Amino acid sequence: MINYFIISGNQNVTESIKKLLYYERKFAKTFYHIEELRDFISVDDYGVLYIVESNSYDLYEVSGDISLEYPNLKVILIDKLENIDYKKAMYVGATDIINVDFSEEEWKQALVKAESIIEMKMEDFEKKSDKKQGRIITVASTKGGIGKTTLSVNLGVSLAQRNVKVVIVDLDLQFGDVPLLLDLQPKQTIYEWLKESYENGDGKVTPYLTSDKKSNITILSAPTLPEFAELITGEHITNIFNQLQKDFDVIIVDTPPSFVETSLVALENADDILLITSLDLPSLKNGKLAMDTFKLLEFKDKVKIILNRETPMDGMDAETVESILGQKMEASIPSDYKTVISSINLGVPFVLGASKTAVAKGVEKLINQLMTEKEPKKKKDKKRFAFRRKKNNKL
Ligand SMILES: Nc1ncnc2c1ncn2[C@@H]1O[C@H](COP(=O)(O)OP(=O)(O)OP(=O)(O)O)[C@@H](O)[C@H]1O
Ligand SMILES: [Mg+2]
Questions:
Q1: Are 351 and 363 in contact (CB under 8 A)?
Q2: What pLDDT score was predicted for residue 317?
Q3: Burial class (CB within 10 angstroms; exposed 0-12, middle 13-18, buried 19+) of 101
Q4: Nearest to 392 by CA among 238, 294, 264
Q5: What is the number of the ligand 1 atom nearest to the C-alpha of 153?
Q6: Does residue 341's CB lie within 6 angstroms of at least one atom of ligand 1?
Q7: pTM attached to this predicted model
Q8: Residue 391's pLDDT band (cuts 50, 70, 90)
Q9: 3-state per-residue secondary structure call for 268-330
């Protein structure tokens, strides 16, 4: 169903739009400010949104924010003739821009355009949801302590706040600490699944997941003892992914700081690989090695580079990172030791407990980018590489 919304402080324009919609048996809900709209709609609602110029907000800025946050809303801007800037309107994701003194024909044209885009998106979505396949986002680095777990958990929780069904798979099978960051003590882990269900039962993974009510997130924990990690193979992980993809929209996979068989399966199956790096030479050296490996395995076109703990530094900046790794960065997350450490100590991810901080906003921005991509890069026709190495041996 297509919804109709208006953000406006101009009563006359609001009434005109409402009247024209009414002639078509369509009804619009009006808001005075973007915040009211945010409280009312959910991220996957489809709709046409009119934003009428006002002194109390910047038309173009609001359009930019809305287009990022609500990809299923198509925005029509209504501005004073002398202020209309088509290029800027397009740049901020608006479908069309019309004059406050619009003619009925002009108004209708803009509406038809927006509606037809939404209808196409809805058809697309229906086709896809017939065979639901959750998106796998694998968070990786070849250097330890770089922020993989911190970002995996905060990305997952932040997505879950947007009503996306998310599961985090803790593939740091020896030293996984995803539950710690969420203040959870799971009784069931991937090890119990293997022993009770995979080897001796129906193989279903759902009973072995742990859900957290506060953050609305689900996790599959790593074994409680490091020695159990050896028992988990790539085949088990493929089986788990196949099941989770049917039930979840997004599967975030946290990995250990080295490429072992199980993490390679997570990289191979990923729609997106987030390669985490930071502004120091060892991280960059290892990042470069990781990029070379990804190239070799033909994963490179789904890699997104995330710079974590960005802080102004002599002789090292984002451009240096890009030139060493040979790719543009997707996002950068600022350094904020105090916020990150206290969120870990409290067991409350900073996107929940300190959502106004720059580090939380960095994560939100990254999600907006990931989620507004039209389509995650298609998995390549699998040029499978053999796992002949001994289990969990490093590459
Ligand atoms: N943006 C940030 N600003 C400040 N500190 C950070 C940031 N991101 C992570 N940290 C800190 O860095 C440390 C390592 O983070 P984390 O455990 O997430 O890394 P990791 O890559 O998962 O490590 P490992 O490879 O050991 O699993 C933690 O103490 C965390 O608090
Ligand atoms: Mg970790």
A1: yes
A2: 82
A3: exposed
A4: 264
A5: 18
A6: yes
A7: 0.67
A8: very low
A9: HHCCEEEEEECCCHHHHHHHHHHHHHHHHCCCHHHEEEEEEEECCCCCCCHHHHHHHHCCCEE
